[in-house]
Amino acid sequence: MAAPKKGRRPAGGQGRPGRALALILIAMVALTGGMFWSGHTTPRLGIDLAGGTSITLKAKADPGKESAVNETNMNTAVGIIERRVNGLGVSEAEVQTQGLENIIVNIPKGVDEKQAREQVGTTAQLYFRPVLTYAPSEQPAPNASSSASPKPTASGATADKGKDDGKKDEKSATPSSSASTQGRAVSEALKAPSPTPTPSGSASSKPKTSASPEATPSVDPATAALQKKFETLNCLDPKQRAAAGEGVLPTDTTVACGKNSAGQWEKYILGPAEVDGKDVDDAKGVFDQQRGMWIVNMDFTSSGSKKFQKITGKLSQQQEPQNQFAIVLDGEVVSAPSVRQTLSASAEISGSFTQKSAQDLGNILSYGALPLSFDTQSVTTVTAALGGEQLEAGLIAGAIGLALVVLYLVVYYRGLSLIALLSLLVSAILTYVIMALLGPAIGFALNLPAVCGAIVAIGITADSFIVYFERIRDEIREGRTLRPAVERAWPRARRTILVSDFVSFLAAAVLFVVTVGKVQGFAFTLGLTTLLDVVVVFLFTKPVMTLLARTKFFGNGHAWSGLDPKRLGAKPPLRRARRASAPIDPKEA
Question: In sequence order, which residues have a C-beta less than 8 Å from that of residue 536 and are 6 or more positions away?
Fold first, then answer.
């Protein structure tokens, strides 16, 4: 007689339910420990539940740019602002248009208001412009300009430390001589078809001749106006800084202000833009270990790389300051590195960045420039009073629904209701812990629709238990004892549960993709709880049912177990008699 094969399990059986229970227990302990370790023991609340900040922006068309306040540009701006705010880790922010020229941005509590205002209101028009000349904004004292901080170099280049002492002496010229030198440098740079000047040396070698009319070459009216604007520009005045680049096209020569590495304001005359923000493929703030400073690294598109290679190739052959290119963001020079070699693939913005400012700038540049400029009309604080009342009403409704589900389970399934309630408890714990962790991780915020999604999930989870319990009862009605019934019912119930949860998850995914704002919170919560339903049923409900089937209370079909064969109308098994007799009585069929 052949020995029976070892390790063979019944169809749909689970030989070691303890492993599955241990796995879900370890997961629950790990997630709960991570929640307490992170310090975020409660889910992050949305603006309707916790309050927050509401920012109203009014669009305006820039005079010098080809943009108009229309529906297309407004919708484009909404998308860019929403991606910027989401880049701060705020997935529940609301960005929507109001009327023809206003955009409303609602940001939940917990986000830095100043940081949010910078992100949503910054136009982020980025240009790379060649530097024609620059000077300290404030009137320098004698010999003071010799201590000016050196300019940074572009990524991949090396700093030119070989400045001779003669240039240092030239920089210590008197203020009047320096102003005259700057004027001649600008004039020569604007006249030349390409930047090939050595104005500083030739001009300052005879500083006293600047008082003579013959020393200043004739210039056209536009150049003279630009020189005058440059000389009178005071970068210490915020109004003058803001007005310096107003109405300027990318193809125009312009003046601008910026801070050097020492934090001092300098004024620049800049040539036409060679590369703009549309040529930037990606940007992010990183910490440079070698220099011990925060910088913003930028990667260019294929066309942007060619443009950048062309301009850096020209600038690398020039002398200072015309070997520098200024990185101009919204009309202000954020960095003006010198170029010592041809660059193409990437560039960096360096300066007095902190971690926050570098990452914010990288976030802004990554998502592109706004097609319009915006003025901040109002910034108001939104209270959570109305949301709190709605939440209380929602929680009461959820509690009533849960009580009705529990009552139904106890009355109809009796002892089996214990398994259902334990499964609901495990699902609730996992849902709460994961929501608390998702707040700091991805910026998930629990709003009223999300709470509704969690309440709806109670019915989805209970439905999975009911499907499994009814399959077990069907097997008992066919004359099987509980342990074989539990194992044979599982494959059929499992298939139904997976199909049902797949449909629910698919609906949640589609809803999340095609909607915006708060409705996404409902879809996200519904999808999350649907996935957790599968985890709980497979790793908790089924293993617990397998273990309880081995007890006398459930195994012997106690009247309060919910699996009493008599109450279920089970009949003695007749399968052997049917196999032995060839004809089948129609009554038995």
Answer: 24, 423, 426, 427, 430, 461
The C-alpha atoms of residue 129 and residue 144 are separated, in whole angstroms, by: 27
- Is 305 in contact with 168 (CB distance < 8 Å)? no
Q: Could you please report the per-residue DSSP string of 333-359?
A: EEE--B-SS---SEEEEEEEE-HHHHH
Burial (CB < 10 A; 0-12, 13-18, 19+), residue 261, is middle
| Cβ-based neighbour number of residue 224 at 10 Å | 14
List 53's β-bridge partners, or say none: 107, 381
pTM for the full predicted model: 0.55
| pLDDT score at 319 | 81
Taking the alpha carbons at both ends of the chain, their separation in whole angstroms is 37
* Other beta carbons less than 10 A from residue 351's beta carbon: 23
Neighbours of 278 (CB within 10 A): 12
Q: pLDDT-based confidence at 122, cuts 50/70/90?
A: low
* Amino acid at site 126: L
60 and 375 in contact (C-beta within 8 Å)? yes
Q: Do 254 and 287 form a contact (C-beta atoms < 8 A)? A: no
pLDDT at 263 over 50: yes
Cα separation, 563 vs 156, whole angstroms: 76
CA distance 488 to 465: 16
CA distance 201 to 188: 13
- How high is the pLDDT of residue 391? 74
**C-beta separation of 77 from 65 below 8 A:** no
Question: For the ranges 138-142, 157-161, 379-383, 425-429, which has the lowest average pLDDT?
Answer: 157-161
Distance CA 526, CA 504 (A): 8
Highest mean pLDDT among 130-139, 531-540, 558-567: 531-540
Q: Give the DSSP H/E element, type plus range, for residue 409.
A: helix 385-413
- What does the alpha-carbon distance between residue 466 and residue 497 come to, in Å, rounded to a whole number? 10
Looking at every residue in the chain, the average pLDDT score rounds to 74
Question: Which pair of structure tokens corresponds to residue 21?
Answer: 């229970």
Do 75 and 372 contact (CB within 8 A), yes or no?
Answer: no
Nearest CA among 212, 217, 208 for reference residue 187: 217
Q: Is there a contact between 278 and 367 (Cβ–Cβ < 8 Å)? A: no
* Neighbour count for residue 437 (Cβ, 10 Å): 18
What the block records as the tokens of 416 is 């089996």
Q: Which phi and psi angles does 401 have, rounded to 5°?
A: -60, -45
Task: Identify the sign of the CA torsion 490, 492, 496, 502.
Answer: positive
Distances (CA, A) of 427 to 443, 461, 469, 509: 22, 8, 18, 20
Lowest mean pLDDT among 212-221, 242-251, 303-312: 212-221
pLDDT in tens, 397-412: 878 888 888 888 888 8
CA-nearest of 313, 225, 240, 244 to 275 is 313
